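Researcher: Let's do a round of design. I'm pasting the structure tokens now; please hold your answer until I've finished.
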């Protein structure tokens, strides 16, 4: 439908919201008219015009006609739900009314559950008599509403006193009971129309109803895979639960106007998803990874396998996969500002993290060196910090990683060594002599220091996790290559 009408995600969301403009404007007047004119005529009117305008959606030709019909549909439907609740007060005494209203309210999710597969089946009529499937859906689903409206007009009884199908005693008892309950309420307090807008109970109930509508109408979104391979649903679930989606939303969302820490269903329409229906697409690894992760949602290993399967399905290169895989933690650092989140990113890096960082740097530089096949880069990480943290001086400490240029063609994987760090003692004095300053304050301002010593390069950064991710390793590798092209090997910040 969006394609046929020329609707993008933003226009569709706006058009969907236009419905509530009309609904809001005519909600109260509709119920006043119901009270004056009678439930039979007015509820029938609502249902018939509701059905007609719903069917008219099939004849929309563009965004403006679609918005117009949506607005009119809101006007037509306004007052239906509260009107029926008001109608129940004419027929059911207090002690029965809550049960009746709850049963009526329960019909909403039941109708959604039953109607979704019906709508999917109707959509399969796509192309019949030259009509798109979505047009058939609007047309055919409008018919029952119109017919029921006619039935209401012919058979609904406004008040118990008019019910000829009740016995005289039943009619008298029901009428007198409801009239007595109404008089009891009016004895304590009788509120006029204008006063009701400011009544605390009315406002509280309105707020409650707003929550019900927001929760229900804002979350009924779904995709049907009827008559398709069921593995498609699991493949899509794998994609939506992968780090790649976090990367697109957190770091690419600004391109389509996403400027908030929450994601709405319409935002998912902007995600880049491969063609799952293309011939020759192998979903087996993605589906298996999704199944394993679903069975173990807190197992980081399973979640990593899920990410890897999705990355391979997208055909990402290794560096692209690194950016995507770390996007969840990076997004948390950017979006959330709680103390617990901050502690996660300022704690000292573990040896495994330093090894992954060093491997990312070596891999990028080796790709450049592989063209000549004469040298390769090796890395050394240390089990201790160059400068330990000093909270009295507001210094997180410093961590160093050494990179050494060695002879020989680069091998397939990066070479990363571990050392106890004996050579770090002399490095501190050497750097102080070159900088004519203490290292810690210098780095607190610049966050990155590169010291070239013959065939060795030392990278020094604060001892905080956020500076030693694989993503920062890719960035640092580009900086190191820029130093190499400049040919100025000294001390760089």
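Researcher: That's everything. Go ahead.
Model: Designed sequence:
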């Amino acid at each position: 439908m969006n394609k046929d009408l020329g609707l993008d995600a933003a226009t569709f969301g706006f058009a969907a919201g236009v419905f509530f403009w009309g609904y809001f404007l005519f909600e109260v007047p509709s119920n006043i008219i119901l009270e004056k004119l009678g439930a039979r005529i007015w509820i029938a009117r609502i249902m018939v015009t509701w059905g007609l305008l719903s069917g008219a959606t099939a004849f929309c030709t563009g965004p403006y006609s679609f918005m117009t019909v949506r607005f009119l549909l809101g006007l037509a439907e306004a007052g239906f739900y509260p009107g029926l609740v008001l109608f129940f007060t004419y027929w059911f005494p207090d002690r029965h009314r809550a049960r009746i209203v709850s049963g009526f309210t329960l019909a909403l999710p039941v109708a959604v559950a039953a109607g979704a597969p019906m709508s999917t089946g109707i959509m399969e009529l796509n192309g019949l008599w030259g009509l798109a499937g979505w047009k058939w859906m609007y047309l055919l689903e409008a018919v029952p509403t119109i017919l029921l409206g006619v039935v209401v007009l012919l058979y609904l009884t406004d008040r118990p006193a008019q019910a000829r199908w009740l016995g005289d005693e039943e009619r008298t008892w029901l009428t007198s009971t409801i009239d007595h309950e109404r008089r009891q309420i009016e004895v304590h307090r009788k509120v006029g129309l204008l006063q009701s807008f400011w009544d605390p109970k009315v406002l509280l109930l309105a707020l409650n109803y707003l929550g019900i509508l927001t929760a229900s109408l804002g979350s009924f979104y779904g995709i049907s895979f009827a008559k398709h391979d069921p593995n498609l649903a699991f493949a899509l679930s794998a994609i939506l639960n992968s780090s790649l989606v976090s990367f697109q939303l957190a770091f690419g969302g600004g391109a389509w106007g996403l400027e908030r820490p929450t994601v709405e269903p319409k935002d998912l329409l902007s995600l880049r998803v491969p063609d799952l229906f293309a011939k020759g697409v192998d979903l087996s690894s993605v589906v298996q990874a999704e199944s394993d992760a679903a069975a173990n949602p807190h197992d980081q290993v399973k979640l990593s396998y899920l990410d890897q399967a999705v990355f391979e399905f997208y055909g990402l290169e290794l560096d692209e996969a690194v950016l995507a895989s770390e996007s969840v933690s990076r997004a948390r650092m950017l979006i959330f500002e709680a103390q617990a989140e901050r502690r996660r990113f300022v704690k000292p890096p573990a040896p495994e993290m330093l090894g992954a960082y060093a491997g990312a740097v070596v891999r990028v530089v080796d790709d450049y060196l592989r063209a000549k096949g004469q040298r390769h880069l090796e890395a050394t990480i240390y089990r201790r910090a160059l400068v330990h943290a000093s909270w009295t001086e507001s210094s997180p400490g410093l961590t160093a990683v050494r990179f050494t240029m060695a002879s020989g063609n680069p091998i397939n994987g990066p070479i990363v060594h571990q050392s106890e760090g004996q050579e770090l003692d002399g490095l501190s004095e050497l750097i102080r002599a070159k900088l004519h300053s203490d290292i810690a304050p210098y780095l607190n301002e610049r966050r990155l220091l590169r010291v070239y010593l013959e065939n060795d390069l030392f990278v020094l950064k604060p001892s905080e996790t956020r500076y030693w991710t694989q993503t920062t390793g890719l960035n640092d590798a580009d900086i190191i290559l820029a130093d190499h092209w400049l040919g100025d090997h000294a001390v760089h910040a």
